[in-house]
Amino acid sequence: METTKQCSKCKAHKPREEFYVDLSRRTGLTASCKVCNDAARNERRHRVALARAVAKAQNRAANPVAREVAGLAGALREALAARGVQ
């Protein structure tokens, strides 16, 4: 068994310990190294969070009633919190 593996993203040869376990793959390891895998995961999380924020802003702009209800719900939460009600 080889002691190194080539990352499919950065093309660097790294020790097998630098790859996550993936038992569905023939080698038992992910194709990309941990560093590249983590970078891709973080990029995906940021991209999805941004898309959700944009969609939420567009929805609020298109729905003035929903915006008003959300504002009232926030005011109600604050009033209940001031009274000590959870």
H/I helix tally: 2
Q: What series of H and E elements makes up the topology?
A: EEEEHH
Structural class by sheet pairing and helices? alpha+beta
Q: Compute the number of strand runs.
A: 4
Strand content: 15-25%
Shape: elongated
Q: What topology, given as strand order, has the largest sheet?
A: 1-2
Main beta sheet: 2 strands, antiparallel
Average pLDDT rating: 90
End-to-end distance, in Å?
59 Å
Task: Provide the number of structural domains.
Answer: 1
Return residue spans where pLDDT drops below 50 for at least 5 consecutive residues: none
Helix % is: 55-70%
Radius of gyration: 23 Å
Throw out a few tags for this protein:
86 residues, alpha+beta, two-stranded antiparallel sheet, 2 helices
Topology at a glance:
Elements: E1 4-6, E2 13-15, E3 19-21, E4 29-33, H1 34-62, H2 64-83
Antiparallel strand pairs: 1-2, 3-4
